[in-house]
Specification:
Elements: H1 19-42, H2 44-53
Helix pairs in contact: 1-2
């Protein structure tokens, strides 16, 4: 990746999540939870191995 120089933070205000950003984050979490549940339902031994390694 490499070093791209110093990044200076010029704002002390916290990042403000918009409602669209919140919805995208929630949707991604739901998709992840559904994927884990589906994996447990079909291949529970391999799912445990994958979760413990990663």
């Amino acid at each position: 990746m490499g070093h791209h120089g110093h990044i200076e933070v010029t704002s002390t205000q916290p990042y403000d999540f918009t409602s669209r950003n919140k919805m995208i984050a929630i949707l991604m979490m739901v998709i992840g939870v559904v994927a884990i549940i589906a994996q447990f339902a079909t291949h529970h031994e391999q799912t445990w191995a994958n979760l413990l390694v990663e």
